[in-house]
Amino acid sequence: MKKTELNLTSTEFQPIFEKREVTTFKTYLAGKWVSGSDPEGLKVVSPIDLSVIAKVPKLSLQEVKDTIGVNFEKGRWDIRNMPGEKRLKVYHRVADLLEKTREDFVEVLMLNNGKIRAAANGEVDAAIERLIRADLDAKKIYGDFVPGDWSSESLETEAIVTREPLGLVLAIVPFNYPLFDTVNKIVYSTVIGNAVMVKPPSSTPLPLIMLARLFEIAGLPPASLSIITLPGSEMDEIVKDKRFQVISLTGSTETGEHVIKVGGIRQYLMELGGGDPVIVLKDATFPLTPQRIVTGITSYTGQRCDSVKLIFAEEEIYDKLKNDIIEEMRKVKVGDPREEGISAGPIIDQKTAEEWENAIQDAINKGGRLLVGGKRVGPTYIEPALIEVDKEKLKDLYLFNKEVFASVALLLKVKDANEALQLANSRRYGLDASIFGNDINRIRELIRKLEVGAVYVNDAPKHGIGYFPFGGRKDSGVGREGIGYTIEYVTAMKTIVYNYKGRNVWKYM
C-alpha cells in the first residue's frame, strides 16, 4: 500500500494551510482565517491506513460564541441585503472554482473519506450541479395576496403573505458526503438570505474548509459564513444558543433526538437514520433487479442513509434473486481506493467495522445464514455481506432495529407483497423504500401504503443532488431536503394586513 500523504496543488488553497510534519489547516470564521487557541488542534485520520493526514483547529467555545455574534449581528444582514441575482452569481463562481480545483477535492475525498476515484468525482459533480441549480430554489420563494372581502369580519382589509429568512442557520454535516452536503446546506440557507454556520464532521472536515475558501474568493459576504471545527461532544452549548433559528442536521437518529432535546423550540430540518427496505415482486425484471439492489447495498461501502439493508422477495422468484445477488456481490473488489479496479474502499473507522461484525454475528446467532462476504479483511476494510434470515426472527435482530452504516443486507422470503409491506412498515425508520416489479396495480398499492418519505420503482434508493425531494418519516427525520423544497424550512411566513375601513376604498363607484 502506497504512502497516504495529502498533496494539494491549487494555488487557491495555499493561504489556508501550512506544510509541516503534518499539513495544518486554518478554518474560516466570519471572514477570518484562524488557527484556533489550542496548539494541538484536531487530527484528521485517513481510513485507508489510519495515518494522520492533516490537522485542523480545535476551537474553544468562546471563539465559537464570539463568531456566532458576528454571524448574527452582521452576517445575516449582509447576506440578506445582497441582491438575489448576486447570490446566484456567487454560486456559479464557486461552481467554476470547484471545477478548476477538482483534483484537490478528489484527492481529499479519497484520502479523508476513503472514496474510490469515481465516487469522489461523482461528489464533486453533484456539488457543482447543486450550485448551478440554485436558480430553481429561488423560483420557490413565493408570497400570496389574501383578499379580506370573503368575511364580514375582515371586509375592507387585505393582506400579503411573504417568506423571509429566519436569520442564522446552524448546519451540522455528516462525514459521508462532506462536500456535497455542505454545498447543499449553504445554498438553500443563503439563497433566501440567511447566514450559515457549519459544523463539520470531526472525521472529514477538510472539504468543508476548502469549500469555504472558494466561497470567500467567489464573493459571499464574509460575515455570513463560518466553519466551526469543534468536536461533537462539545456542541451542546452551541446548539442551545437561541440566535440560531434553524438547525439543519444530517446524521443518526440518536444525534437528531439529542439535538432536539438540547436545542428546544425552533425550526428543525433533519435527515436521520435510514437503511432502506426493498420489495421484489414475482414479475420483477432480471438482471436489472439484482444489479440495482447490489449497487444499493455496496455503494460507498454502505455508508449512506439510503443504503439497502432489507430485501423482501416473493416466493416465486426468491431463489433466482438470491443466487443472482450472491453472484453480483462476489464481483465487488475491496481495497485501497486509489488502486485501479477497486469498487469498495474502507469504511470510516474501526468502531463502525466492529459494530458491523457484531451485528452480523448477532444475526447468525439468531439463525441467520451468511450467504456471501461478511469478513473483516483489515482494520477498516470489510467484505459486503448478505444474510438470509427467517421472518419469524427478523424483529429480534440488531440489523432490523438499528441502522448499521456499512455494507450488509438481510434477505427474506415472503408469501406476498402484503407481508413484505407489514414487515417494512414495522421498522422505526421511514426514509426510503424500493419496489421492483411490473404490475402497476400492485406497485401503486404498495406506494400508497409504505410509510416512507420516498419510493423508488425499479431502482435502488438514491438521493442524488436532491432534484427530487427526500427526507424521512417516523425516526428518519423532520422536513425535506431537495432543490426548491427546503425553502419553507429555512424561512418564516410573515402576514401583513392593511386596514382600509372607513376610507371608502370598497365603496361602489
Molecular structure report:
The structure is a single chain. The chain has 509 residues and is an alpha/beta fold. It has a seven-stranded mixed sheet, sandwiched between helices. Strands 11-10-9-12-13-25 form a six-stranded mixed sheet, with helices on both faces. Strands 1-2-6-5 form a four-stranded mixed sheet, with no helix packed on it. A hairpin with a 2-residue loop joins strand 17 and strand 18. Helix 2 packs across helix 7, helix 3 (102-113) packs across helix 4 (117-132) and helix 6 (178-190) runs parallel beside helix 7 (206-218). The mean pLDDT is 96.
List keywords for this structure.
alpha/beta; 35% helix; globular; seven-stranded mixed beta sheet; single chain; 509 residues
> What is the count of β-strands?
26
Gap between N and C termini: 87 Å
Order of neighbouring strands in the sheet with most strands: 16-19-20-15-14-22-23
Helical fraction equals: 25-40%
Structural class: alpha/beta
**Global shape:** globular
How would a textbook summarize the main sheet? 7 strands, mixed
- Integer-rounded radius of gyration: 25 Å
Report low-confidence residues grouped into runs of 5 or more: none
What is the overall pLDDT average? 96
Seen as an oligomer or otherwise, the chain set is single chain
Number of helices: 15
Report strand %.
15-25%
